[in-house]
Amino acid sequence: MAAAVVLRWLLGPVLAATGTAALAQGCPETDPEAMALLEALAGRSGAVSYEGVLTLQRGNSLRMMALRHGVEDERVSEELTLLTGQEAQVVRGDHPLDCEHPGHRLLRAAAALERGDCGLSGHYRISTAPGERVAGRRAVRLLLQPRDMYRYGYVFELDRESAVLLKGTIVGAGGRPVEQFQFASVKLGDAAPAATERPTAAVVHRAAHPHPATPQAGPKAGLGWAPGWLPAGFIATDAAGAHSVRRSYTDGMATFSVFVERLGEPLRPGEGVVREGSTVSYTRGLTLGPDPVLITVLGEIPVNTARMVADAVQRVR
């Protein structure tokens, strides 16, 4: 779980920023400098090779990891190795540098105008501030403050030269940090060691990256369902059908998935909540038409948002 969180932080936020300069000009309360920095984070930083040791703080849990992000011949590879706790390594290789994730179009000017909104800036106040020194490098601060109660805020410390993310904090209600990652040491560009110089862990997981437009094989819920409510700005990340067990959504920053499982008999009233850092797992039993189901919402959203999404699931033909 910890490895997956760091991959989410560093190996491609789902946002991208083609056309953000034009978008910034037409949106109120939007700082062009901040949008340009967001563009650099989403685009230019991914083309830089880097290697370092980082920490991940989630509640009372603190993990230390080694990360390598390599770019060669327009292809990206990553290795993330746990240095504390269970020995494990996550490897993702041969990933196109110009791959566009579903959240990418959320910042495209044309797509935003077509929807009649301002993309990511319609749901976050995006600004900059003087940064701090992280891993011996000067940083500039990028802040994304939510415009509603349905999502978290973000504070990024970006390297001034490369826009590589050096430190990131997810912020809850009242400005309370709920999750934080930061590099303790980092080498960028030619200073980053080659992949062959890194040791291999005892347990290696090779991450897959299916195309989001291709429906993925998997179990079916046995009934048609759809979310009756989503927070403004969230769109589907895949091509899941009405009978799929799982559907996933993103607003360009946060992601969450909804799971619907058909049950043989109704569950007793109640709900279950598990939180770790910014990630929540919310479950409850409902009846969709004549069928009892178990609904689970899993993702980086506040508990109340997950509860509202689960309560609004409805049956469709």
Give the SSE map.
Layout (H helix, E strand, L loop, with lengths): L1 H9 L9 H7 L5 H11 L7 E9 L2 E12 L2 E8 L6 E8 L12 H7 L8 E11 L2 E10 L6 E7 L5 E7 L5 E12 L15 E3 L18 E3 L7 E2 L9 E5 L4 E8 L8 E6 L2 E10 L2 E9 L3 H9 L1 E3 L2
Parallel strand pairs: 4-10
Antiparallel strand pairs: 1-2, 1-9, 2-3, 3-4, 5-6, 6-7, 7-8, 8-9, 11-18, 12-13, 13-14, 14-17, 15-16, 16-17
In short:
The chain is mainly beta and about 325 residues long. The chain has helices at about 1-10, 20-25, 30-40, 110-115, 305-310, and strands at about 50-60, 60-70, 75-80, 90-95, 125-135, 135-145, 155-160, 165-170, 175-190, 205, 225, 235, 245-250, 255-260, 270-275, 280-290, 290-300, 315. It has five helices and 18 strands.
Key phrases:
5 helices, 317 residues, outer membrane lipoprotein receptor (LolB), chain A, single chain, mainly beta, 2 domains, six-stranded antiparallel β-sheet, Phosphorylase Kinase, domain 1, 14% helix
Task: Describe, in plain words, how this protein is organized in 3D.
This protein has helices spanning 2-10, 20-26, 32-42, 109-115, 303-311; strands at 50-58, 61-72, 75-82, 89-96, 124-134, 137-146, 153-159, 165-171, 177-188, 204-206, 225-227, 235-236, 246-250, 255-262, 271-276, 279-288, 291-299, 313-315. The protein has 317 residues and is mostly beta strands. The protein folds into 2 domains: 2-206, Lipoprotein localisation LolA/LolB/LppX (outer membrane lipoprotein receptor (LolB), chain A, Clam); 225-315, MucB/RseB, C-terminal domain (Phosphorylase Kinase, domain 1, 2-Layer Sandwich), CATH 3.30.200.100. The strands form 3 sheets. A 10-stranded mixed beta sheet has the order 5-6-7-8-9-1-2-3-4-10, covered by helices on one side. Mean pLDDT is 80; it is low at 16-24 and 102-115.
